[in-house]
Amino acid sequence: METISQEPLLYGSLTAHVRRMLEPVAHDSFLFFEDTVRLLDSEISSGARVFDSGCGRGIVTSWLAEKGCKVTAIDSSPDRIEQTRELLHEKNLSDHVQLETSQLPDAFPEDHFDVILDVFSWWHISDWGRLFNLSRKNLKSQGKLIILDTFFGWKTTMDFRQQMRELWHAALPTFNECKNMMIKRDFRMLKTDSIQEAYARYLDAICAKIHELEKEDLGVADPMELQKIKSMWEWFRTAAHTEDLVASCMIGELTQF
Asked: For residue 126, what is the DSSP state?
């Protein structure tokens, strides 16, 4: 894969089109929406103050608002914040959500949240220690840090780590490093579950849809862009099946200040 900026490919209009081919509520994640909701629904109560720390196009943000949560949602992209704003307006949920264009970890909102939520938003950030420090500072006692994300695993090769640095300018923690960093910051681990099967299933599906789009050749996509999109998603798919990237659901409860 070319060493070029991958973010426009991951969050651009063509990937969004492919995601919508998969499911009508496609969001900027690496899981189907129904899998995301299944993992989160029992963990977040109606009325909770939630920090959605990477809202993308706002699908999970709007679900939280519909659930009755008071949400602060951020994203580094002004375009994605605007898309979230439009979705909330369409659903008459604007009053339930405060939106900000912010770059983590530099602009972490200060509050006392019941829940801080990462749905595949932190994987391209290297300073997870700082993210955990700020999460500890801005959670209520017994508040939850919920992470649905990818980590380096015990099978992750040095070559893959180098690819991650070159393509995404990121150095992920391993699963165990993440868990240990949370424990050292007074989080009691409530859940540390693999979601690799659901993660790989989503990546298999998105690659299959790209292949279908490629075969149809209906002028929907620029062929060069489609090849770049295909290469990027095949990279993620291969990493999932080789377990160079491992997807996990980690939930920690803050026990003290």
From this structure: S
State the DSSP string of 151-209. Answer: EE-TT--HHHHHHHHHHHS--PPBHHHHHHHHHHTTEEEEEEEE-HHHHHHHHHHHHHH
Rounded CA separation 257/235 (Å):
41
SS3 51: strand
Task: Give the global pTM.
Answer: 0.94
- Residue type present at position 5: S
Structure tokens at 137: 């500072």
What are the sequence ranges of the domains in the chain?
Answer: 26-161+168-200+244-251
CA dist 27 and 32 (Å) reads: 8
Q: What is the full per-residue pLDDT of the chain (257 aa) written as tens digits? A: 444 568 888 988 889 889 998 998 888 899 999 999 999 999 999 999 999 999 999 999 999 999 999 999 999 899 999 999 999 999 999 999 999 998 888 878 888 999 999 999 999 898 999 999 999 999 999 999 999 999 999 999 999 999 999 999 989 999 999 999 999 999 999 999 999 999 999 999 999 999 988 887 655 667 888 899 999 999 999 999 999 999 999 999 999 75
For the domain made up of 26-161+168-200+244-251, give the CATH fold. Answer: Rossmann fold (3.40.50)
Distance CA 101, CA 110 (A): 15
Instruction: Tell me how far apart the alpha carbons of residues 15 and 9 are, in angstroms, rounded to a whole number.
Output: 7
Cα–Cα distance list, 232 to 76, 77, 113, 171, 226 (Å): 21, 20, 35, 18, 10
Q: In what order do the strands lie in the sheet with 139-152?
A: 97-101, 70-75, 49-52, 113-119, 139-152, 245-254, 187-194
- CB distance 32 to 22 below 8 Å: yes
